[in-house]
Specification:
This protein has a seven-stranded mixed β-sheet with strand order 1-2-3-4-5-7-6, with helices on both faces. Helix 1 packs across helix 3. The model has no long low-confidence stretch (mean pLDDT about 95). The chain has five helices and seven strands; from the N terminus they run E-H-H-H-E-E-E-H-E-H-E-E. The longest helix is centred in the middle third of the chain and has 14 residues. The relative contact order is 0.16. The chain has about 180 residues and is an alpha+beta fold.
């Protein structure tokens, strides 16, 4: 049973080192963020990313309880409002290597979706995921995301062409 988690704002000064530890190579970096960053990832790139207008970045931490007085970062996620359309782009989903396989990905995504549709009042959330990332695709589908477009051969990584799925989830509050 995974520990309860909550989202708090990503603090580059405190949290960038975690992402640098969790992303250990260029292939992992592309899987996490597409071509948005350059390898090697560094503090300056992460600070600029967190400061982008319309971007909400979060660190997932284990909930503080009477037993654990210190929060334990276990993941990262972001939502970036579209400037030319309603809704936002969900992305940069990452679970700490030592916390994978415990159901935290679903918790993290659910919290971000609830924040987007609730607090931020978004009408829809979209995302992009590489088609070969089957566990992520299955999880997004489980949470209600539907594939709207397949972009073939959008990235060349280690001599292999990667295709991407563009997925979308409409707020359950739409039409009410």
């Amino acid at each position: 049973m995974p520990l309860p988690t909550l989202l708090r704002p990503f603090r580059p000064a405190d949290d960038a080192a975690l992402l640098l530890d969790w992303i250990t190579g260029p292939t992992e970096l592309i899987t996490w963020a597409g071509p948005s960053f350059t390898w090697p990832l560094d503090h300056a790139q992460l600070a600029a990313y967190a400061a982008e207008p319309g971007r909400h970045t979060f660190t997932a931490v284990t909930a503080v309880t009477a037993v654990t007085a210190v929060e334990r970062p276990v993941g990262h996620i972001s939502l970036r409002r579209h400037t030319d359309a309603p809704g936002a782009r969900l992305g940069r989903v990452l679970i700490a290597p030592e916390a994978r396989g415990q159901g935290l990905g679903e918790q993290l995504l659910t919290l971000a979706i609830e924040r987007g549709f609730g607090e931020l009042g978004l009408p829809e959330i979209d995302l992009g995921v590489y088609a070969h990332n089957t566990p992520a695709v299955r999880l997004y589908e489980k949470l209600g995301f539907r594939t709207e477009q397949v972009l073939r051969d959008v990235e060349l990584v280690d001599g292999v062409r990667w295709s991407a799925l563009q997925m979308r989830l409409v707020s359950p509050h739409q039409g009410q």
